[in-house]
Amino acid sequence: MNQEKIITVNNLTKEFGSFTAVDGISFDVYKGEIFGFLGANGAGKTTAIKMLIGISKPTSGEALVAGFDVKTHAEMVKKSIGYMSQKFSMYDDLTIKENITFFGGIYGLSRAKIKEKTTQLIQDLNLQDVADKLVKALPLGWKQKLSFSVALLHEPKIVFLDEPTGGVDPITRRQFWEMIYAEAHKGTTLFVTTHYMDEAEYCDRVSIMVEGKIEALDSPKNLKQKYNVDSMNDVFLKLARNVE
Fold first, then answer.
1. Backbone torsions φ then ψ of 9, nearest 5 degrees
2. Dihedral of CA 161/167/168/174: which sign?
3. Where are the domains of the chain?
4. Read out DSSP for the chain?
5. Closest CA to 148 of 79, 87, 84, 78
6. Which pTM was predicted?
7. Is the pLDDT of residue 91 over 80?
8. Domain ABC transporter spans what residues (predicted)?
């Protein structure tokens, strides 16, 4: 694994009044790594990601993303990353081509670059026959693939994927992970949240959040050995029980 740190988090905390949603988490993520960020609903994952992508200010602690401080240079963080939300973020009433052009403009690409990227993306996804159709006509799996590809338009150093395969069938999930692997191979860092524990096995390393804290962080293989279990789901269950 490349040892160049692309995300550095030190004692990052987010409080809402008397409630601590993220409680002093610390970790590093490396260039080209597929980093799994796991936890049950309410564990603090979404709050942590909002801080890392520059849309929520930490109460205390530090985080550097692509070399920029999330507290003082949030706009530079946003320009350096790609983001795909759990909820499909393309515009249903625009065509595939129009969506790509629109987001290319948001990312600040030139017209020539947008044209080049649009042609390449449509070819890579084999969408030539439907490029001028409204996005809402696409099956969910294809929408997710398109959304991921658009998040990569401006060639970000890091892409945050929040539950990217939610609601899609197993075959499409596997195809989506092949796209993730291909992108990591190019040196892009993929920061992935998922509630599918089998998908944790595809990550280089995973962190597991329980009640605002990171309770485990290592490769899936090492975590299974440490807790003497056969699956990441069993690791997760053991950690949850320990905290209770």
1. -120, 130
2. positive
3. 34-41+80-243
4. ----EEEEEEEEEEEETTEEEEEEEEEEEETT-EEEEEE-TTSSHHHHHHHHTTSS--SEEEEEETTEETTT-HHHHHHHEEEE-SS--S-TTSBHHHHHHHHHHHTT--HHHHHHHHHHHHHHTT-GGGTTSBGGGS-HHHHHHHHHHHHTTT--SEEEEESTTTT--HHHHHHHHHHHHHHHHTT-EEEEE-S-HHHHTTSSEEEEEETTEEEEEE-HHHHHHHTT-SSHHHHHHHHHHHH-
5. 84
6. 0.91
7. yes
8. 7-236
Confirm if 5 and 34 have CB atoms less than 8 A apart: no
Closest CA to 9 of 48, 50, 57, 56: 48
CATH class of 34-41+80-243: alpha beta
User: How many C-beta neighbours within 10 Å does residue 97 have?
Assistant: 18
pLDDT reported for residue 96: 93
